[in-house]
Amino acid sequence: MTKIILSTDKPELALRFRDYIRREYRRDLPLYQQQGHYLLALEEDDPQLNQLLNEAEQYRHTPFAEKYMQASWQDGQTYSLNGRFKALLPNLSQWRNLWSSIAAAPVTALIGLICVVVYLLSLSDYQTDVYLWAHFPQDSSQYSEIWRFFTHALVHLSLSHIVFNLTYWLVFGAMIERSCGSGKVLQLFLAAALISGITQNAFSGQAFFGLSGVVFAILGYVYVMSRVDPLRRFSLPSGFIYLLLTGIAVGFVGPLLNLQVGNAAHISGLLLGSAIAWLDGKRLAHKK
Q1: What's the rounded Cα separation, in Å, for the pair 146 and 150?
Q2: pLDDT category, 16, cuts 50, 70, 90?
Q3: Distance of alpha carbon 66 from alpha carbon 255, whole angstroms
Q4: d(Cα 178, Cα 268) in Å, to the nearest integer?
Q5: What three-state secondary structure class fits 247?
Q6: For residues 145 and 108, is the Cβ–Cβ distance under 8 A?
Q7: Using CA atoms, how far apart are residues 93 and 42, in angstroms rounded to an integer?
Q8: Cβ neighbours around 180 below 10 Å, total
Q9: pTM summary value
């Protein structure tokens, strides 16, 4: 005889609970579909039956708790979109919990807020003023205007541009700040804005804006740190590497599709963030 542990008409809820059990108990629960419902069940003589029934009862009360979301995140699963990349973007329930996490990452939040304010200003009559004030130095006559080496990263030219960049900045920037401190995320922002700006300027001139060079730096940082950090502070979904490869690939094919992509900024930011992570990992390993 079998005993139903969990029944729901939403497949993502059943799959999320199964991910959690897989992570905590190292076993896969069989999933059944019956008359529009998704069932997880076990044999009545299973030695873990009562324990898993208690787990299911807790899950029914708080299905969006962080421990359940984190289980799917680490497993790299996707349920409501095809492909592996949904796990790399926060869904609605993760956005509900995001702001409490951001409270522990004030530098990440502040830079994100500045980007939003600057974008709103660019939609107003101040658009030209914003662009002229924030762009990368045009020539040596503007090198003394030090802010220009960094402010280009705070300006975005479209809604999709800022949403994409801030999504990754808030998720992974906050992850770095909570794990390594505000100084580290500020270091990455300043270093990546400077180096990606200089690199992109060498290829395209000063006509570029956006946080994407910095975003690729933090993506490179968390990816390398997830492998070299002796403290094991970074846990990433299994599909994370595909995000990096796709971002670089889009940069190369973008011009063929009439898309203006700052690939030089992306690659230089990725390499810089990866190098800083490698050095941090070596330093921490030496201390141990």
Answers
A1: 8
A2: confident
A3: 40
A4: 25
A5: helix
A6: no
A7: 29
A8: 20
A9: 0.64
258-276 average pLDDT score: 83
The alpha-carbon radius of gyration of the chain (Å, integer) is 22
176 token code pair = 């770095």
Residue 122: active-site member:
no
Query: Which residues have CB under 8 Å from 47's CB, separation 6+?
Result: none
Structure-token pair, residue 2: 């079998």
Give 161-191 pLDDT, tens digit per residue: 899 899 889 989 999 999 999 999 999 999 9
Smallest CA-to-CA distance from 281 within 246, 217, 235, 231 is with 231
Task: Confirm if 196 and 265 have CB atoms less than 8 A apart.
Answer: yes
Two structure tokens written together for 233: 């502070």
Residue count of the chain, please give it. Answer: 288
Active site includes 266? Answer: yes
CATH architecture, domain 2-75: 2-Layer Sandwich (3.30)
Q: Choosing from 72, 122, 196, 212, which is the catalytic residue?
A: 212
List the domain boundaries for the chain: 2-75, 92-287
Its CATH class, for the domain covering 92-287, is: mainly alpha
Rounded to whole angstroms, the Cα distance separating 81 from 66 reads 21
- Active-site annotation holder among 266, 268, 274, 286: 266
**Token reading at 29:** 């629960």
